[in-house]
């Protein structure tokens, strides 16, 4: 079956326009994206924008004290020194070891912020992260002491 349908073409154009909007502006909500699309003659629902942002891999990042959408690759490859500590202090509520995992709790909608920061730093003891809405699972490498790593993370919380 051919994927180049009129709807597919419209979606591809919309995705390009959304990427341009996010890349060139500070956009902090799906409603703002929807409004900017409407100003450009692309009338879509907020639910469609939500699916499109998810398809693009857009995430919310804190820049200059505000949350905004960013696309993968639009964020710095390596965070500045102290950034991970600041993110933990601001966003992590608790850290609990569970086997070779750490379970980090955050305010609703914030787990991806912490996960992204950890993924950027790429600590040797971490194999990977998986973020939900308010919970982040941190998979530790074999041989890493989960209690010690949890203790190190708790120190960053304050």
In short, what is this structure?
By secondary structure, this protein is α+β, with helices and mostly antiparallel strands. Helix content is 46%, strand content 20%.
Low-confidence stretches: 1-7
Number of helices: 6
Helix proportion: 40-55%
Corresponding CATH architecture of the largest domain:
2-Layer Sandwich
The major β-sheet equals: 4 strands, antiparallel
CATH class of the largest domain: Alpha Beta
Q: Measured on Cα atoms, how large is the radius of gyration? A: 18 Å
Number of domains: 2
Sheet/helix structural class: alpha+beta
Topology:
Layout: H1 6-24, H2 30-39, H3 46-56, E1 59-63, E2 66-70, H4 83-91, E3 94-98, E4 101-105, H5 111-121, E5 126-131, E6 135-140, H6 146-157
Antiparallel strand pairs: 1-2, 3-4, 4-6, 5-6
Mind explaining what this structure looks like?
By secondary structure, this protein is an alpha+beta fold. The chain folds into 2 domains: 6-70, Winged helix-like DNA-binding domain superfamily/Winged helix DNA-binding domain (Arc Repressor Mutant, subunit A); 83-157, Gyrase A, domain 2 (2-Layer Sandwich), CATH 3.30.1360. Helices cover 46% and strands 20% of the residues. The strands form 2 sheets. It has a 4-stranded antiparallel β-sheet with strand order 3-4-6-5, covered by helices on one side. A two-stranded antiparallel ribbon has the order 1-2. Mean pLDDT is 86; it is low at 1-7.
Features:
single chain; 158 residues; alpha+beta; Arc Repressor Mutant, subunit A; Gyrase A, domain 2; two-stranded antiparallel ribbon; 6 strands; 46% helix; disordered N terminus
